[in-house]
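Input sequence (406 aa), recorded before submission:
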Amino acid sequence: MERADVIILGGGMIGLALAAALDGAGIRSIVVDPADPDLRKDAAFDGRTSAVASSSMRMLEATGVAAHLPEPGSPIRAIRVADGLAPGGLTFEPDEEGDALGWMHENRHLRAALGARAEAGEHVDLRWKSSAQHIDRGAAGVTVTLMDGTELRASLLVVAEGRNSPTRETAGIRLARWQYDHAAIVSTLAHERSHEQIAYEIFYPTGPFALLPMTDTAVSEHRSAIVWSVPNDDAHGWMSLSDQDFAAEAKAAMGGFLGEVRLLTPRSTYPLGFHHAARITAERMVLVGDAAHAIHPIAGQGLNLGFRDAAALAQVLVEGARLGLDPGDAQLLARYERWRSLDTLSVAMATDSLTRLYGIPGRTASAVRRFGMGLVDRLGPLKDRFNAEARGTSGDLPLLLRGMPM
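Predicted structure, token format:
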């Protein structure tokens, strides 16, 4: 039987970020994931990107992950929010220190950096191409039996398996769950004019259109990622358009302010849904990331919520270890539950409300929304609150998200 302090089921971005954070504090983890990491090496860019909030970037720097990034990514210097192409709107800008609101990264680069950091970890044991056949949780600890018969023993089981977590389902944890009548279309565009490191969120009654600044290509072409929410009934039609026709539609949706555009990567699409776990802990078990919550991508906060889970859990476990508590102690799990439940629920409901608010058609609704955005733009304290949410610095922030050691 092989032992560690923590077993992490799921070697995605959140699971590996947690392993890196624990490794820095000397807490041993075993990461179990069925994926084959060799298939990810030298992967071509598939158009999938993530907006990493400034606080999440501080965590990646503090845990040594950022040092493995193949490129620094593109800073987001401002975020502009608009109701269609009508005048007015809302602009979020850096604080007095001038720090970026966030950074845009290709998902393949984030995965590569997190994987390299985990591989370098003295206290991280990576079990790729493995999955749990049986899990036994009890007062004395957790035993995970892998498909090849290997038995792993730890004090705590961390479930980072994503939206469709089988371990969460087996544990009987209920979800509040619903599907939106929309699908997201994801791709990357080359465009004639520079984005000037500005992200745009343009709301239409049919769904939001997000334009996110990326680094230039090797031949100095400007590029941006798009996440375009369209009604489910229209998704097939949008995907069947030629690249040239789709680029023309994207140019029209952004009002043509970036000049001529063309597609750089194939389009992909996925359904949009919401779920929130009724609880995120059980006996000697915790949920992190999409296993605990999944939200609409309208504000780009899904991945960052997961990083906040990892930072909070790591801090709880490290501080507990200093008090002589084992990682699965009920007191520690209760602290993690209290710390993360309110934050994740408030962000989830805020994004859901925004989705529904901006989906109301009609000139009157549009006028009310523009008036509201103009009001927020003029009210300093309220705008500062939204700014803090965008950069991930609101609420009781874990030390790693402040860039501080635990």
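Checked by second reader. The chain has one domain: 2-176+273-402.
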